[in-house]
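Methods, example record. To illustrate the input and output format used throughout this study, we show the complete record for NFACT RNA-binding domain-containing protein. The sequence lines were provided to the predictor; the line carrying structure tokens was produced by it.
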Amino acid sequence: MVFYFKARPEAGDYTIFMGLDKYENEELIKYGFPEDIWFHVDKMSSAHVYLRLPKGQTIDDIPEGNKVNNVDVVYTPWQNLKKTASMDVGQVGFHSSKMVRTARVEKRINEILNRLNRTKVERTPDLKAEREAVNAVERAERKQQLREKKRREELERMEKERHAELRSYKNLMVAEKMTSNKDIAAKNKTLQELEEDFM
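The corresponding predicted structure is encoded as:
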């Protein structure tokens, strides 16, 4: 079971979700998205909470809120979560401690918690299928971008060839119209007749 919340339902900006227990946390760790930010109360037993950011937003755009006073909340991008075989169920580490941030929350803000609880929805999602669907869409977008790039490169190549052919054709036309000094001398034309030929 996964609990879903909307941080700003009127704007539809942020989806917050958390597993019911440490076993669901394992699935959330395994099938997270690059836009997910992971949260946990530091040095306390608490839920793993995820915030899914809209594309284009960063960890710096995150709103704050908490249930308990005077706690440190650690958070980091999902890609920074590290899971090894020796870790207990629901336990995680970090690839880079430099990417982990801590926020000291002095006072609980009930208004935010009440607003979140009004948006609470329970679902049993297929996290693997969701992740695979997003991967398929991203692969299709990359393929489309690659096809468009190849098409642009082919059009540019064809345009260069066309320009080269035009230059070659113009050079050929000029060469056909050119008269050598020997030809001019052989025709015994006067200077005035030569000028008239070129006019």
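Annotations derived from this record:
The mean pLDDT is 77.
The first strand starts at residue 2 and ends at 6.
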